[in-house]
Amino acid sequence: MNIELISLPKIEDYRGNIAVIEKDVIPFEIKRVYYLFDVPSTAKRGGHAHKEQFELLIPLSGSFEVQLKDGNEEKTVAMNKPDKGLLIKSNVWRELDNFSSGAVCLVISSGVYDETDYIRDFDAFITYKNKL
Question: Catalytic residue among 48, 81, 84, 129, which?
Fold first, then answer.
């Protein structure tokens, strides 16, 4: 599957730790940053794939799960460490759910918002993948 769990550089200190994203920590130029918060525990986010964009998901606070599908395999990744990021490359379907109370998911993207890059219907995603 076109994903990767990335360990973010961490500076440990008795006063609190710092995770750093700079230089070549992530394999793309940052074009967009946003975050999900106050997501009800019963809600799902995502529900799409990107044709070109890469995204790095980081649980800044709390936890959530990411359901991933590429048309051949399915995987669930539990996100609960703020020094670990889930890199989702292009052509991977994702759904985020099981948000804990107070969870915050930071998303760093390789592209600006472009609706034409999204596939929002799973059947259309499978059709698209089969044409690649």
Answer: 48
